[in-house]
Design a protein that fits this description.
With 289 residues, the protein is an alpha/beta fold. It is built from eleven helices and five strands; from the N terminus they run αβαβααβααβαααβαα.
Length: 289
């Protein structure tokens, strides 16, 4: 079963992660997030994706969670730039629909899990149910939950369900990597103001994002509980500094590359029967002049 590649930003598996000690600032080495590095990373990912698709033994699930304006969309665009679109699928999870609310909270993301040979990307995910809903527990009143569910323990129970599902997926060949893009409150403010000041970015601004900012401390507590409750060797969380976007994107790319290189991806070997058919096909093609 897949196990997490090491990184300075790997969230420990023992429940000791402390949000207040997680850096939002780049630990720059002077070159590792520049153009040449990013081009090399894109090339490596493209090659690894081809082998992943050809082997058809593993699926890859990338989960991105963050506060607003942390850079989820831009990171997905940057890191996946060289990926064949036919082998990749991206889902963005907003407010649940009435159909989704008629199922358990894991249903809508389970329906969108990637097939073997493909990379699936969740821009927000099932974790919204232990983040936004924990910060705004009144949402539970609209989720049509059975009366016997204990609302005082529901979030711990949801974390258990997520953790158990991720272990099941990992046992069956899904490589799970989860990224918390850790932006500072000051940098978020700067980015919100940039959206207001630039007409080309006005469409990105949502007044509700500022309202959510008032709950910053509650969100940090919710993230700490979620990451501690579900970071495991087979489904690790990485708390990536997000104040410097190029640095953040480079770190995400290298973690994905390390993970794919660690699982022994290889092109399938033709069988003896295949080789006979190849020889016959070659002979027919060469004779067709």
């Amino acid at each position: 079963m897949f196990e997490a590649p090491d990184s300075p930003y790997l969230v420990p598996f023992d429940g000791s992660f402390d949000v207040s000690r997680a850096s939002t600032r780049a630990q720059t080495d002077g070159h590792s997030h520049k153009g040449k590095y990013r081009r090399e990373a894109i090339k490596k990912l493209s090659t690894l994706q081809q082998v992943l698709a050809a082997g058809d033994r593993h699926a890859v699930l990338l989960v991105f969670q963050a506060m607003d304006a942390a850079g989820k969309d831009s990171t997905i665009r940057s890191v996946m730039r060289g990926i064949d679109p036919s082998g990749c699928q991206v889902f963005s999870f907003k407010k649940p629909s009435s159909l989704e609310l008629d199922h358990d909270f894991l249903w809508r993301t389970t329906c969108r899990l990637p097939e073997r040979g493909r990379i699936g990307i969740f821009n927000r995910s099932q974790y919204e149910e232990v983040l936004v809903v924990r910060v705004h527990p009144k949402i539970l009143e609209y989720q049509q939950l059975p009366d016997e569910i204990d609302l005082t323990t529901v979030f711990d129970e949801r974390l258990t369900s997520i953790r158990q599902q991720e272990e099941h997926l990992a046992r069956n060949g899904t490589v799970i990597l989860k990224f918390w893009l850790n932006v500072s409150k000051a940098e978020q403010k700067k980015r919100f103001l940039a959206r207001l000041d630039d007409p080309a970015k006005n469409w990105k601004f949502e007044p509700g994002d500022v309202a959510e900012r008032r709950h910053w401390d509650d969100y940090m507590a919710a993230y700490e509980a979620a990451l501690n409750g579900t970071s495991r060797p087979w489904a690790p969380w990485y708390a990536i500094p997000a104040d410097d976007k190029p640095y953040m994107q480079a770190r995400v790319a290298e973690i994905i590359i390390d993970a794919l290189q660690s699982i022994g991806l290889r092109y399938p070997e033709p069988s003896a029967g295949d080789r006979v058919e190849f020889a016959e096909s070659r002979a027919e093609l060469c004779a067709d002049d």
